[in-house]
Amino acid sequence: MMIREIPGLGRGYGAGFPYYPWWFGTDACYTIPAALSMGQHEECKQTLRLIKEISDRENGNGRIVHETSTFDVTYNKGNTQETPHFVKAVNQVFLWTGDVDFIKEMYDYCKSGVLNWLLGEMDNDGDLLADGYGIIELYALNLEMLDTATLTYEALEGLSNMAKVLGDSEVIKKCEKLIPQIKEEIEKKFWMEDEGLYADMSGSIKDMKERIPHLVNNEKMDTYKKSEMDHYFSLDRCEDENKDIPWLMKNWITVCPLEAKLADDKRAKCIFERLETSEFTNEHGLQLCGVKKDINIENNEKSDDIYSLDISMSISSGVMAYAESLYKRANESFEYTKKLASLLYCAMPGAISENLPDKGCFLQSWSSYGVNWTLIGGIMGISPNAYTKTIEINPTLPDELDKIEVKRMLIGNDEFNISINKVNGKLEVKIENDNGWNIKINN
Question: Whole-model pTM?
Answer without folding.
Answer: 0.96
